[in-house]
């Protein structure tokens, strides 16, 4: 699990050192920095996948990633610390990215480390992995520490199921064998569900039951490979009391997004880290409460949950310690975790959502 993450000079985050728990729900005003924090995990994943140069070029180059650009920030730094399954602080990974004259980044430093201390005591021994390289060399390193870090960074996908337009990839045919893991935009949803149907029927049936609970018209999925091209499949379903041919284009935006979310959170082999950007979009309040339950259950099974949200209804389902408030102060993003002890007098009369609306806990414009 991620124990702590340090970020310097990344977009609106000049400097932050954030401790993470099993559940981390980020709230805040538009532009406060929630999405920037979430997108840092995308950067980490692209570093691991040795795709940094392409990712930077496609997203505005170095100036777009540095806090107030190259004139203000001379480098971008990250340091992420992990615990093992019993909560001991064990390994960490860090890097320093420096912009070059072409407005791209190179690795001024990339390092890994292990904790020589005991339990929560920290006594780090770091080793440089590479310097002056354009791409990370972490993926090629087969030492124990690197393999441990790799398993986490590989799971840093930011799930974003917002696109439900007619041309959305989730509504199109997908390749039947593209089913190893659910893609971050749900583009292989039908293929992934078909694999669960064939190999993990209990998980598949639980996903169906969850969708029925928030969409009574939904009877079941109807997943079979295309008769004209057996290598492809689309999301089809059956409506209660009807024999019409129905596919993803016949689902409401909220129902389709909930299918993606339920599939992500109820799959048998959950990712180590589940990162979702504003999952509540288009969901009915009943579905939002159901989503909160799924997030908690995934955390109980060992996944670390990181979610950004604008939903008062969603945070009402969680404890103050699960909530990280994001504010913009002195032209930078700051992050503060709530405390039940500090809010105990307020919580006797108000919910977390009400305190947010009243601007008691921050996170407001």
Topology, please?
Blueprint: E1 2-10, E2 13-19, E3 23-28, H1 34-48, H2 52-58, H3 61-65, H4 69-72, E4 76-83, E5 89-99, E6 105-115, E7 124-130, H5 144-153, E8 158-159, E9 174-175, H6 189-199, H7 201-214, E10 218-221, E11 232-233, E12 236-239, E13 246-247, H8 253-266, E14 273-277, H9 285-300, E15 304-308, H10 312-315, E16 323-329, E17 332-337, H11 340-347, H12 352-357
Parallel strand pairs: 3-15, 3-16, 8-14, 14-15
Antiparallel strand pairs: 1-2, 1-4, 4-5, 5-6, 6-7, 9-11, 10-12, 12-13, 16-17
Helix pairs in contact: 6-7, 7-8, 8-9
Characteristics:
365 residues; six-stranded mixed sheet; 17 strands; 31% helix; 27% strand; globular; ATPase_AAA_core; RecF-like
Q: What's the short story on this structure?
A:
The chain is an alpha+beta fold and 365 residues long. The protein has helices at 34-48, 52-58, 61-65, 69-72, 144-153, 189-199, 201-214, 253-266, 285-300, 312-315, 340-347, 352-357, and strands spanning 2-10, 13-19, 23-28, 76-83, 89-99, 105-115, 124-130, 158-159, 174-175, 218-221, 232-233, 236-239, 246-247, 273-277, 304-308, 323-329, 332-337. The strands form 4 sheets. Strands 2-1-4-5-6-7 form a 6-stranded antiparallel β-sheet.
């Amino acid at each position: 699990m991620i124990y702590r993450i340090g970020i310097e000079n990344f977009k609106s985050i000049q400097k932050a050192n954030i401790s993470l728990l099993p559940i981390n729900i980020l709230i805040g005003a538009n532009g406060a920095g929630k999405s920037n924090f979430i997108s840092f995990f995308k950067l980490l994943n692209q570093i691991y996948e040795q795709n940094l140069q392409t990712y930077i070029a496609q997203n505005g180059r170095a100036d777009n990633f540095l806090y107030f650009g190259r004139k203000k920030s001379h480098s971008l730094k990250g340091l992420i610390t992990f615990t093992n399954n019993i909560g001991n602080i064990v390994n960490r990974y860090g890097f320093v990215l420096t912009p070059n004259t072409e407005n791209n980044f190179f690795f001024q430093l990339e390092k890994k480390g292990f904790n020589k201390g005991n339990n929560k005591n920290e006594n780090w021994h770091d080793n440089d992995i590479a310097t002056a390289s354009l791409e990370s060399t972490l993926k090629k390193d087969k030492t124990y520490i690197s393999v441990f870090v790799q398993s986490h960074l590989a799971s840093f996908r930011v799930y974003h199921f917002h696109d439900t337009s007619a041309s959305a990839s989730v509504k199109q045919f997908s390749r039947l064998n593209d089913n190893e893991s659910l893609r971050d935009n749900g583009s292989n949803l039908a293929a992934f569900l078909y694999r669960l149907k064939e190999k993990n029927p209990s998980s598949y049936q639980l996903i169906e039951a969850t969708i029925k609970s928030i969409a009574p018209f939904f009877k079941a999925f109807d997943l079979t490979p295309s008769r004209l091209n057996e290598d492809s499949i689309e999301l089809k379903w059956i409506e209660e009391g009807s024999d019409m041919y129905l596919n993803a284009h016949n689902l409401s935006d909220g129902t389709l997004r909930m299918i993606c979310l339920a599939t992500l959170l109820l799959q048998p082999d959950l990712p180590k880290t589940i990162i979702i950007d504003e999952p509540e979009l288009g969901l009915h309040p009943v579905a939002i409460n159901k989503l909160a339950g799924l997030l908690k259950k995934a955390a109980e099974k060992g996944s670390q949950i990181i979610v950004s949200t604008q939903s008062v209804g969603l945070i009402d389902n969680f404890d103050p310690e699960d909530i990280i408030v994001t504010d913009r102060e002195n032209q930078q993003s700051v992050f503060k975790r709530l405390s039940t002890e500090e809010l105990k007098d307020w919580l006797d009369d108000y919910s977390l959502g009400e305190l947010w609306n009243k601007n008691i806990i921050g996170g407001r414009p």
